[in-house]
Input
Amino acid sequence: MRNDERYSPKPQSDQLEIFGLGSAGEQDFQEARKWIEDNPGAWNFMVENAVRLNRKGYVSVNYLVNMVRNELHVACKNGIAPSLARIMEARYPQLKGAFNKHRSQSDGFSE
Output
């Protein structure tokens, strides 16, 4: 049994937030967008691997972040991983529902 099944974390919230209120989630979301803009090759690598892994089942955004670090030697903060998963799902409809997402401070922000 996985820890997320054992402890029953709260599900992702679909409530939208208002940009510009300065919440920590907005900062994470903006930082993730900046990372994508600064690292298009690493982002494409993540997307390609997410599509490949989605064919086999569940995709872990943390695994994708570690793949980028280990295989491409590109720095990526753990804190932006939830935002990266949400951006990836918004931009690539074939990945909708591929990630097992729980409540995050970046929930209310979307592309």
Notes: Helices lie at 3-6, 24-38, 40-56, 61-72, 81-91. The longest helix spans residues 40-56.
